[in-house]
Amino acid sequence: MTLADHAAPAPRRGRWADAERNRAAIIEAAGQVFAECGGSVDVREIARRSGVGMGTLYRHFPTKDELLTTVLEQQFNAWLTDAHQQAVATEDPWQALTGFFEQLLDNQADNRAVVESYATTGGPSEYCVQRCYSLIDQVRTRCVDAGVLRPGVTTEDLFLLSGSLSQAVLTTADSHPGRWRRLLRISLDGLSSRNTEPLPEPGTAGS
Residue 177 gets which letter from DSSP? Predict the structure, then answer.
């Protein structure tokens, strides 16, 4: 085997590294553009910001929907990781709960594509949903153990509340941005252990 044979893989490694850098640049730029403009943005703007040609962009992501799904998945997983770290680092259980909701909704309010995804696809993937549910369950359990959560509140209650407040972010994003903060405070007050009135059983119809 000659020296040339040993050196042959280098160009391939170089091309692979270039491709990975291009992919990372596309995802980073797309995350910024989708957050600012939403999912209807022209992909040429993403290519421009990432510094790649349209051909390169389409080689990595043949459709805009595929790129959007990849970006939202990465962003939501990154947020969940950060939210988990913050919840663990917060000693006060009630502050951990309120911090979770504030971080969730603040993240959505600053990201137009995330808000739109709740209307078009129902939100994040099933994997992200399960991670989110698990985190809510951990935070709820801490609040129950500390006696600061209203009796009878379940993990499912808090999970559904997060979805309802996400819809509030969606419906008020243009007309009343930031209104969700008021609704969150009202909701958190209802979750406090100061409220001891028994909650209706799940599935109970209103009278």
Answer: T
Whether 83 is covered by a domain: the verdict is: yes
Does residue 74 have a pLDDT over 70?
A: yes
- For residue 192, give the 3-state DSSP assignment: strand
- Cβ-contact 139, 162 below 8 angstroms: no
Q: Are 185 and 116 in contact (CB under 8 A)?
A: no
Q: Both 74 and 46 in a single domain?
A: no
Residue 179 and residue 172 in contact, taking contact as beta carbons nearer than 8 Å: yes
pLDDT classification of 6: cutoffs 50, 70, 90: low
Structure tokens at 81: 């990781």
Q: According to the model, what pLDDT value does residue 100 have?
A: 95
pTM: 0.79
Statement to judge: residues 81 and 48 lie in one domain = no
| Cβ atoms within 10 Å of 195's Cβ, excluding its own | 14
Looking at the fold, whether 52 and 74 belong to one and the same domain comes out as no
State percent of the chain over pLDDT 90: 56
pLDDT tens digit sequence for 19-69:
899 999 999 999 999 988 888 889 999 999 999 999 999 999 999 989 998
* CB-based contacts of 186, cutoff 8 Å, min separation 6: none
